[in-house]
Every structure is written in structure tokens, then in C-alpha cells.
Amino acid sequence: MIERRAFRVMGTEIELVVRNGGADGAFHRAEHEFHRLEALLSRFRDDSELSRLNRDGALDAGPDLLAVVELALAARERTGGRFDPTVHDAVVNAGYDRTFEEVAPDSDGCLVASTPAAGAVRIAGGRIALGPGVRLDLGGIGKGYAAERAAVLLAAAGPCLVNAGGDVATRGGPWPVGVATADGSITLELLTGGLATSGRDRRHWRRNGQEQHHLIDPRTGEPSRSDLLRATVVASDAIEAEIAAKSLFLAGADRAVEEADTAGIPAVLVTGDGRTILAGGLAA
To answer: How far apart are CA 74 and CA 68, in angstroms?
Structure first.
């Protein structure tokens, strides 16, 4: 028996799936966890813990904000700076300065020049301190973290899947998951772990006739000019999948294939010119 619950939070659609009966209590707890974490981690809520950190420059952080920032900084180190939580101002300067539903799809608004990221962030005990002018954006990794937290709660009711706008966390597979390709879709079977997609085809807009999107290249401080349209990755959990998907997207097609194959990271890569490339051990 499959039970489902859907709702909207963190600016995206959430689907909870449990392969069992009597999951109402687990659904309630998982949904509440998403709302709780949005209240802590959203850059769009003035009263969130993240917004207070960005505003004040330093904060004695609660356990969830501290955990997500530590995960993001470790990812920055591991990806050679491709994944970087200090791209906040670059995202805002590109026009993503409010929830995506409120971003004008096309306007003559002035674009502000950005500079490379790699801003200083220091953690001592439970205190997070940002360098001068540094602000954090935890949108993607925060969503992956919330998906994993919800999956822990749902698993008490049975084998489960959490889909947070494409960030997927599972427990007790197998779970078939559809992945968009250049000309259709393929189905991947997740036995365990998570899946995530990073791409420039969903959250994009125009400013002064220039195409903009939310995937910032930390090296330039501007929306990435990667030749990939999107990258979908399978990893040990939704957090690691989110990190790897963004890193491979920013790497570009050729290097992404090389890195996925070398590391054994299952990846579905779709290029801007309409090709689908399977890498990291996946085969047609």
C-alpha cells in the first residue's frame, strides 16, 4: 500500500511517499519539519536564523543552521570552490532578490556587477562569524538537508521517499525515479540514498535582454555559462547529491563526465545543444 502527501514549502512542491499503512502521524511530523527548517534557513524571511546571521555578521547558531553551514563549507573545500554558500550577493545581483514566484520574468532592471565568492566564514564552537560583506545562501543544501531530516521521520512508518522539488531522499528501496533527458525521460532505481538535479532550465529570467539563472559560478560571481543544461546525480544522500549535481553542472560537460566516471558518481547530463550523456557507471 502506497500513501502520499503533497504540500508546498521552501518555494517548491514537496511529495512524501510511504510504502505502508497508517502513516498519518509520520506525514505530519515530516511536513512540520520542512516548515520548521524553512523558518530557520530561508534567506527570504527576515526573521529566520540565516537572515539574522546575514544581517548581523555573527550569531550563536542553533544546531540545524550550524550543521548546514558546516556541510556547505566542507563541500566548498571538497569541490575546489565550485559549491560555495557565500554566493548570496551574486544571486541577488543577478535578480533573484525575492522568492522565485515574485521574480519578474523579464525587466529592464539594472544588473549589479558581482565579484568572485569564496568569502570568509569562521566557526568557533557554536558561533558563526562572516567576513566583511559576506552573506550566505543555503537554498539548495538546505533543501537537501530538510529532505533527509523528513526521510528520517517518515522511515518510522515504513520504506519512504521524499521529493523536495527534485531533491530526493529515500529509505528502504527500491524506488523508481524518473529523470528528464534531452528528448524524454529515463527511470533510475534507487536502492538507497538520494538524487538531485541542478540546472538552468527551471529558475531563469531576463534582465536588460540578458538570460539570468540562479546557478552562480563562484569564480566569476555571475550565472554560470556551463554548456550543460542540467545535471542529475545519485549519491549517498540528498545532501551529497545536491553538492555533486551543482559541482558537475559548473564543471561543464567534458569535465563532468571525466569526474563522474573517475569517482563512480552516477550522473545524467543534458547539454545545452540537446544531448544526453550517461556517466559514472550508468549505461543506456
So the answer is: 10
Determine if the peptide bond prior to 174 is cis (ω within 30°).
Answer: yes
Q: φ, ψ for residue 71 (rounded to 5)?
A: -60, -40
What pLDDT does 116 receive?
64
Confidence category of residue 219, pLDDT binned at 50, 70, 90: confident
DSSP 124: E
Q: Which has the closest alpha carbon to 162: 153, 150, 177? A: 150
Burial 225-242 (b: 16+ CB within 10 A, else e): ebebbbbbbbbebbbbbb
DSSP state at residue 157: G
Report the CATH number of the 2-279 domain.
3.10.520.10
Residue 28, classed as helix, strand or coil, is helix
Residue 59 and residue 73: Cα distance in Å, rounded? 16
Which one, of 206, 263, 284, lies nearest residue 247 by Cα?
Answer: 263
String of b and e for 102-133 (b: at least 16 CB within 10 Å)? ebeeeeeeeeeebebbbbebeeeeeebebeee
Strands 210-213, 276-279: pairing is: unpaired
Q: Whole-model pTM?
A: 0.91
**In the numeric block, which cell numbers belong to residue 245?**
549535481
Convert the pLDDT of each residue in 145-201 to its tens digit.
999 999 999 999 999 999 999 999 999 989 999 999 999 999 999 998 999 999 887
Q: How far apart are CA 212 and CA 222, in angstroms?
A: 9
Contact partners, residue 141, CB within 8 Å, separation at least 6:
68, 71, 72, 75, 83, 85, 239, 242, 243
